[in-house]
Design brief:
8 helices, 34% helix, globular, D-Maltodextrin-Binding Protein, domain 2, single chain, 263 residues, 5-stranded mixed β-sheet
C-alpha cells in the first residue's frame, strides 16, 4: 500500500506556488500552519515533512535533512518581511516581533549587529500594544499587506537589507524531513519540486484566485509571486544559507552542528 505523506505547509500566500496541485494528489495530506509552528509538528512527528524556517533547520541539522530544491526566498525586497519603526534603524534598540516567525527574528538580529553594531532587545508583539510602547515592530507574511501600523513612518525590508549587506539572495524556508524517516524521501522531494514548477508557471493564476482571500490586491499579489519571491534552492541560495549560518553562529543564535548538506 502506498504511503500517504503528511506534509506541513506554510499558510501564507508565499507558499501557494510550492504546493500547486498537491491537494489533488492522493499520496499526501496537507496540514497548514504558520512557519514558527511547523517545526514543532515535525519534532512531534505529527507530519512527515514540512516547510520549515531555515533557522530551525540550523538548530536541528544533525537530525533533519533538506529533501527538495524548492524553497521560499528572495533576491532583494520581500514585501512581507518588514520592520516598522518610529526611529531611524540605527537608533532602534528594542524590537517587538511577530510570533509567527523564527528566521526573520534571527535575520533582524544579525542585520542590526552587522550594520549598526547593536544587539537588539527582542520582545513578543501581541498587536495590542500602544504605539508609544513599541519603538519598532517586525511583521511577516500576509498581515504586512493589511497592517494598521500607520504611525510607524520608517520601514526596513529585511530582504533588501540582507542583499545590501551580503550581495546575496536570502532563503527563509526549505522542505525538510527527519533523517531517520521511512519511505522514499527522494520521490517525495521530486513531487515537491514538480509542484513548485507548476506553481511558478501558474503564479499569475494563483495570485488572482487566492490573493484576495488572503487580503492581497491582485496586482500586488502577482508582483509578489512573480517578481519578489524566489522558489528554487540554487547555488547562490545555498551560498546565502551558508553565510546566514555562519553569522547566526557568530552571534550565538544557533549551535555549531557541522556543515549544511543539500539535495
Amino acid at each position: 500500500m502506498q504511503r500517504k505523506w503528511k506534509i506541513g505547509v506554510v499558510s501564507y500566500l508565499n507558499a501557494k506556488p510550492l504546493v500547486d496541485g498537491l491537494d489533488a494528489w492522493d499520496g499526501a495530506e496537507l496540514i497548514y500552519d504558520v512557519p514558527a509552528r511547523l517545526s514543532g509538528l515535525l519534532d512531534r512527528r505529527a507530519v512527515d515533512a514540512a516547510l520549515v524556517p531555515v533557522i530551525d533547520l540550523f538548530e536541528r541539522q544533525d537530525i533533519w535533512q533538506i529533501i527538495s530544491d524548492a524553497c521560499i526566498g528572495c533576491d532583494g525586497e520581500t514585501l512581507t518581511v518588514r520592520i516598522f519603526s518610529r526611529s531611524r534603524p540605527e537608533e532602534v534598540r528594542r524590537l517587538h516581533v511577530d510570533g509567527d516567525s523564527h528566521t526573520s527574528v534571527a535575520l533582524a538580529r544579525i542585520i542590526w549587529q552587522e550594520c549598526y553594531g547593536r544587539r537588539l532587545e527582542v520582545v513578543p508583539y501581541q498587536g495590542k500594544e500602544a504605539v508609544e510602547d513599541c519603538e519598532a515592530v517586525l511583521l511577516i507574511g500576509d498581515k504586512v499587506v493589511h497592517h494598521d501600523l500607520v504611525e510607524y513612518e520608517i520601514q526596513t525590508d529585511l530582504g533588501s537589507a540582507w542583499k545590501s549587506l551580503t550581495s546575496l539572495p536570502f532563503v527563509f524556508a526549505v522542505w525538510v524531513a527527519p533523517r531517520d524517516s521511512g519511505g522514499d524521501l527522494a520521490a517525495l522531494g521530486r513531487k515537491l519540486s514538480e509542484a513548485r514548477d507548476r506553481g511558478v508557471a501558474s503564479a499569475k493564476r494563483i495570485a488572482a484566485e487566492l490573493g484576495p482571500g488572503l487580503g492581497w490586491p491582485v496586482t500586488l499579489a502577482e508582483t509578489y509571486l512573480t517578481r519578489r519571491l524566489k522558489f528554487t534552492l540554487g547555488p547562490r541560495q545555498q551560498s546565502a544559507m551558508a553565510r546566514f549560518l555562519e553569522l547566526a553562529r557568530r552571534y550565538d543564535l544557533v549551535p555549531a552542528l557541522g556543515e549544511l548538506t543539500f539535495v
